[in-house]
Amino acid sequence: MARALLIVLDSVGCGAAEDAGAYGDAGSDTLGHIAQACAEGRGDREGLRSGPLNLPNLFRLGLAHACEASTGRPLAGVAKPAQPQGRWGYGVEVSQGKDTPSGHWEIAGCPVSFRWGYFTALENSFPAELVAGIVKEGSLPGILGNRHASGVAIIDELAAEHIRTGKPICYTSVDSVLQIAAHEEHFGLDRLYALCRTVRTLVDPLRIGRVIARPFTGSPEEGFTRTGNRKDFAIPPPQETILDRLAALARPIVTVGKIGDIFAHRATGVEIKPFGNAAMVEAALEAWDGLPDGGFCFVNLVDFDTEFGHRRDVPGYAAALEAFDRLVPHLEAALRPGDIAVITADHGNDPTWPGTDHTREHVPILAFGPGIPRTPLGRRESFADIAASLGIWLGIGPVGPGRHW
Ligand SMILES: O=P(O)(O)O[C@H]1O[C@H](CO)[C@@H](O)[C@H]1O
Ligand SMILES: [Mn+2]
Ligand SMILES: [Mn+2]
User: Fold this and answer.
1) Which of 108, 109, 125, 128 is nearest to 117 (CA)?
2) What is the pLDDT of residue 83?
3) Shortest-distance ligand to the CA of residue 99
4) Where does the pLDDT of residue 1 fall: very low under 50, low under 70, confident under 90, or very high at 90 and above?
5) Which domains occur in the chain, in start order?
6) Over the chain, what is the mean pLDDT?
7) Using a 6 Å cutoff on CB, does residue 151 contact ligand 1?
């Protein structure tokens, strides 16, 4: 029986979607602009990387073809192979929102049909009643922040005051999120998680997608660093996902990285959560090796987004792509006859774009495996085509409203 390996490269978009203008993102292009910057020498960083974007394995599977089909422009500085060895295409998001849950749920066969709640005010972002609720239910002396912010910057700015006062740092972004940063020792990690659970119930009526714990360590003298203990408290997907269908049929499921959090731990099987892209691929390969027939392994690689997209770090993003590319042959070697692997993304996060938020983009879709034909997938009108197709591949029928390939 077939097995399926689905890898989401978090934020690796391949060109502005037709509706990107409604998100302030017309012209954004995560992969295209990284390739362009690298071709022009703006992707160089001493000791890290230099030169044109070098992704020989992903290009061999059809990534450059997918980018060009999405934007109508070739990737700068990249010679694309004449005949890709994978099935390549790109997906268009139908859900309203350029956030991680929307992208992942749609990939899993559950597009988001409702509108998320957002905290749109840049300052004093949280309604007064909500702040009062957080303070009361969390037994807190108050909160800091209460505005739109980039996570690393707001910790640098407010961590000392947080330690002095015991007030957690609460902030948001253009996404449907309420993030809480607190010091692992001074405030306490378990206490931060408990606070996030409390706040989760408070923001449920506001349809906020995620409450995110952002623990950090350090001191004013040595500086502060976010740790790997980030935890997302998401609302569950509103309808069946491919995970639900597989779990109901007692199929083996392994989820790696943020997947468990994103699906509110519903039908997420054995959850593995190492820190960092390389460790996640390694853990996924190990789990895949022991995954029985009919099994599904669903992986999210978050570093592209968190470490480089939101930080608007082009050389860092390019280096992370190149590091992943070097692991692709290991993924290919791990596929047996009957297996399929799909590499895709959940939204864009163009590191050359103004601001620090996600960008509304198409995503690449690369499918490969020993028995997979090399015909193009073309343009897919929903990310949900992935769940529909993997459902068929796994013998459980198409899942969700997508059209299978
Ligand atoms: O700046 P940081 O804290 O990384 O926040 C980012 O992470 C959040 C969740 O992905 C996004 O909404 C974005 O604001
Ligand atoms: Mn994401
Ligand atoms: Mn993000």
Assistant:
1) 125
2) 92
3) 2
4) confident
5) 4-113+238-393 (3.40.720.10), 128-233 (3.30.70.1250)
6) 97
7) yes
Please give the structure tokens belonging to residue 104: 């992942």
- Where are the alpha helices (H) located in 236-276, listed in sequence order? 242-248, 259-262
Q: In this predicted model, what pLDDT tens digit does every residue of 274-319 receive, in sequence order?
A: 999 999 999 999 999 999 999 999 999 999 999 999 999 999 999 9
Checking if the pLDDT of 371 tops 90, the result is no
Q: What Å distances lie between residue 285 and 154, 163, 270, 290, 321, CA to CA?
A: 36, 40, 14, 9, 18
Task: Check: CB of residue 144 under 8 Å from CB of residue 161.
Answer: yes
The interface predicted TM-score of the complex, written ipTM, equals: 0.94
In contact, 391 and 397? CB cutoff 8 Å: yes
**Ligand 1 near 100 CB (within 6 A):** yes
Asked if residues 317 and 286 have their Cβ atoms less than 8 Å apart, the reply is no
- Greatest alpha-carbon pair distance for the chain in Å reads 63
- Cα of 312 vs centre of ligand 3, distance in Å, is 12
Q: Which residues on adjacent β-strands are paired with residue 7?
A: 299, 343
| Residue of the CA atom closest to atom 14 of ligand 1 | 173
Q: pTM of the entire structure?
A: 0.91
